[in-house]
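Re: the 179-residue chain
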Amino acid sequence: MLLKLERFVRWADWLSKWTGKVVAYLILAMLGIQLTAVVLRYAFANPVHWVVEVMTYMWSWYLMIGGAFVLLNNEHIRMDLLFERQSKRRQAVLDLSTSIVVFLFIGILFVIGADKAWESLLTMERSRTAFHPLLVYIKVSVPVGAFLLLIQQIAQCIRCVSIITRGTDFEKLHRSADV
């Protein structure tokens, strides 16, 4: 059982790292699109009207998919002033106790996001701009991001339980067994 939990944690961490890399490259694509739009507008007097909407779509994906990577690296907002002064076990207890709120948030995000994405897909909802793209592409980022966040939050909870019960997480146990 412990080995399966450790494998799940490692898989969730790998998935969050991989999606983090994907969104890092997405920033480069966003930069390229924005640069192209600026050059077209000012060098050739040919403004591209769809750029703002494409950037909004890409930014949505960036924010939603990057959430799991942020959680993996503990870069999310918390009360560091109080949190960092605690022992590792107490930090794990605090993280585990606040997980209830996090799971509730993720659940709401997933359910409402999936409902809106499904509705958008069924009605073939489109933007009211000149570009006129399907909105399902932006709306599906919410449940996908929430699902990735859920996987990483479960891994974080497993890690917290390991710290509370053993005093260390899986990575440290694995490293000490290799030495």
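The longest helix spans residues 2-43.
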